[in-house]
Write a structure and sequence with these properties.
Number of domains: 3
Strand content: 25-35%
Oligomer: single chain
Largest sheet: 6 strands, mixed
CATH architecture of the largest domain: 3-Layer(aba) Sandwich
Structural class: alpha+beta
Number of strands: 19
Organism: Photobacterium rosenbergii
Helix content: 25-40%
Keywords: Signal
InterPro entries: DUF2066 (IPR018642)
Protein name: DUF2066 domain-containing protein
CATH class of the largest domain: Alpha Beta
Length: 406
């Protein structure tokens, strides 16, 4: 019972996660005709959409390996069906995730996992000399289009709800003027991993001009003016213009969070973390490392006092792993070398386990009912090899923010 209680408390202490995108390997494309050639074109378009979503790169189709693979898209399809969308016959395709991953590896491309930063969009629309903040329930066409395009790129997009707390925290001039402090204050309640500020001017017909800023740090960093925004301008036909803005936003986030493939997958590191004070700290830290996109598997190798040494099997390069790990403000690098060598020490039953991160976690994996440590590997038992290379030593703090732990 004590072990179950410790696990339950540890799960409650887990950091806020980025949103989980569930449709990365699915695409629905228009099917204008019923002939075979039209269907082959639709399958190619669907594969392009999935590769863009999974790689985080809008220009992935320019890769020579990917361009060649698009000519034989059928081999990547795992399931398909026919459907209708807005009265248009469509082809709904699901692609095999392992084959997509292999293709991106062969192309030396990048991979962006299902765990993705949620983006809060502050949108002000200037129409007929009237400027208004667009809230989630406003049924605004521009806002719906931004959300649709975000879904196309696999980026979770949310609009502020516009209740009393929102309208008293921020005003139209705050957003239109790009004033960081009120934007950060009003965004705090939503805990996004990125904030997109959009100023939209409606023009003649179906034309729009967009001026936007993307803050890709957490809200605490934004409030301290520690985030330099990426900026852009797009204008033209509304659907195309919004698509261009969202593509730019997704490419920026993909460059930050997607990991390069084709690195030394056999590489192992010993990662040492100090100041682990409780089982809650341990489980939270282990889950954090496991969820990193660059990590294939994690095993707690040694514990001594408040120090834990993990064996980390990498899917990508050491630099990418170090970058991902350092994005969580609860971890700070220790520049001084360790004063002593870590030695094996007996631990409470069920505390240490090896975790395989090479396969995506199921949505139910975080529930207490699915956690069973009765058969897990104990510290120091049957661990074959110790990694020859030690990464940076980190210190753990529970007072830091976890908003960027992706």
């Amino acid at each position: 019972m004590l072990r179950i209680a410790l696990l339950f408390l540890a799960l409650l202490a887990l950091p806020l996660k980025a949103a989980t995108v569930t449709n990365l390997y699915q695409a629905q494309v228009a099917l204008p005709d019923t002939d075979r050639q039209s269907e082959q074109v639709a399958r190619k378009q669907a594969l392009e959409q999935v590769l863009i979503k999974v790689s985080g790169q809008s220009n992935i189709v320019e890769n020579e390996v990917v361009a060649k693979a698009l000519g034989s898209s059928n081999q990547y399809v795992s399931q398909f069906s026919y459907a209708n969308r807005d009265g248009q016959r469509t082809l709904l395709l699901t692609f095999d995730r392992s084959r997509i991953r292999t293709l991106l590896t062969q192309a030396n491309s990048t991979f962006w996992s299902e765990q993705r930063p949620s983006v809060l969009v502050w949108l002000v629309e200037d129409a007929n000399r009237s400027r208004n903040i667009i809230w989630d329930q406003s049924n605004n066409d521009l806002a719906k289009l931004i959300q649709t395009e975000g879904d196309r790129r696999g980026v979770p997009v949310m609009m502020p709800i516009g209740d009393f707390e929102d309208v008293t925290a921020i005003s139209t001039p705050d957003i239109w003027g790009g004033f960081v402090q009120p934007i950060a204050t009003a965004s705090q309640r939503y805990q996004p991993q990125a904030v997109l500020v959009v100023r939209a001017r409606k023009q003649d017909g179906e034309q729009v001009a967009l001026n936007w800023q993307l803050y890709s740090g957490n809200v605490e960093q934004l409030a301290r003016n520690q985030v330099t925004p990426s900026e852009g301008r797009n204008s033209g036909e509304t659907v195309t213009t919004v698509g261009q803005m969202v593509d730019s936003m997704a490419d920026i986030l993909g460059a930050k969070y997607a990991v390069p493939l084709g690195g030394d997958a056999s590489g192992q590191l010993a990662v040492v973390v100090e100041n682990i004070q409780s089982s809650q700290d341990f489980f939270t830290l282990e889950r954090l490392i496991t969820n990193l996109t660059s990590v294939a598997a994690v095993n707690a190798y040694r514990i001594q006092g408040d120090r834990v040494e993990f064996t980390v099997q990498l899917l990508s390069t050491e630099d990418v792993f170090q970058r991902e790990l350092s994005q969580d403000s609860r971890l700070s690098a220790v520049t001084a070398p360790l004063g002593e060598t870590l030695e094996s020490a007996p631990q409470p039953e069920g505390l240490i386990r090896a975790t395989d991160a090479s396969q995506p976690a199921s949505p139910e994996a975080d529930s207490p009912a699915d956690v069973d440590v009765s058969g897990t590997e104990q510290l120091g038992s049957d661990i074959e090899t110790k990694p020859a290379k030690q990464a940076t030593v980190f210190s753990w703090s529970t007072t830091g923010s976890s908003a960027v732990a992706l």
